[in-house]
Amino acid sequence: MKSFKSVIGLAIILCSCNSVEESQERRIDPVLNKIFTQEHANYESNAMVREQALEQLLIALDSLVELNYLSDIPLRALRVSEYAENEDQALVQFSTSLAKKDKSLLSNKLEFDLIAFMPKAVAATIQEGEVYQVKAHNFKALNEKETYQLVNQTYFSPEPAITPVVVGSNDYEIQIGVFRAEVDSVSPYTLY
Q1: Residue 47 has what pLDDT?
Q2: pTM of the entire structure?
Q3: Nearest partner of 133 among 78, 75, 70, 67, judged by Cα
């Protein structure tokens, strides 16, 4: 009986740890909370306020991207390919889509693509469709021309926007565009 109670206690602790990890705030969440819950709380019901919130976020992103504020957001690997301009490197496309589940975090409403440059040996370990924690440096926002010089297509548009998840709903995703970066490390990320 005592061992049964121990097993139940251990199971409760493990479940609690997983719950904490799932809803753990990311580095960018305090900034998003300030913009979307404090300063523009009605962004979901007012197009003008959505535009103001997006403009404020894009101004903040200029410095946040350089400080790696996006590096703790899990990303799904979309495509792994050779990088024609450097035979030692590969180009891996990542996207935030389908890579998160806890909708209580505003960082999980962020949608973006990452075009990542990394050594071929690292890229060879990546499985398309799997989710990863990508640590990188030299993040840079790309415009449409820069994006399509590197890749044929992206999951999200290079143009930032706040759009409904489903037409007519009040659940919005915050599309912040396409970025490029040089990868330091990639590790598998478990969603469930």
Answers
A1: 94
A2: 0.82
A3: 75
